[in-house]
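User: Fold this; tokens only.

Assistant: Input:
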Amino acid sequence: MNEENNKWLVVVNPKASIGKSEKDWPEIQQLLTSEGVDFDFVMTAYQGHAISLVRDSITEKGYKNIISVGGDGTNNEVINGIFTQVRFPTTEITMGTIPVGTGNDWRRTFNFPEGYPQLVEIIKNGHVFPHDVGKVAYYNDGDAKVRYFLNAAGTGLNEMVCNRTNKLKSEGKGGSVRYMLNTASCLFQFKCVRIKLEIDDQEVLEDEILSISVGNCRFNGGGMMMMPHAFPDDGLFDITVVKKVGMLKFAANISNIYDGTFVDKLKEVSLYRGKKIRITSIPAHQLLLETEGETLTNSPFEFEMLPKAINMVVPEEVENGKRKVENIK
């Protein structure tokens, strides 16, 4: 087996942001080179390819520094490549990101800039943040599966919106306006599902729900602040449950989802925190889950927190420790 490789491995998803990543890669490549970043790069060829590329590159070539060029879905595949390799502890691996496009949710918690020169400067500076990672077990046609995620996961309406958005992207139809219209359309078509929610081995809820978001960070769904109090190194998931609510009432509060104030304005919203989560649909197997753009089938879903499991390169130091959480219902 080769020695450790001190170069960065840059993983480029050319299809991210409807091909913007491929178009912009020469500019990003030139900026990395001009800033003296020592790197190799690989291009993904199909959905899920980054997982095997990263896993094999770490295992066979000893890379410990990985850069993801794409969106949240690309980040998710890179994370799963890192967490399914066994050569190095994940705490010895550093991951940087160059977000492409405007719909990236993970970048929002850390206030990443949008310009490529500033993003490459962040990589060059190399300030790392010990970031929590979520692990979720689920069942695909009865077979037990595991997926890891950096930012957030969602079920109910969240998954329906994600699934339809992916279809729009595959047809070359993207953008924040389309995403909002798609959300509104799904809102009036989704049928609430009865679930049982257990947190840290205690049942906390059995009710009909519109959606459940589980996150390390604050945003998902294209800029919706679904977990407004989340802090990505406190060792806890933030869970936002939207119980059955009138569609017109919920639609009237859509704008409040983008600044997080909906958690105070809607009595149907409940907030929780915990290290272990189990979501079961009643009857069983009626729920799907999305993790950063990937649809997983099906419930029960069992979440486990992996605290400070990877080093993420971020723009500036984020205060460690637990954030005071107010207005939890």
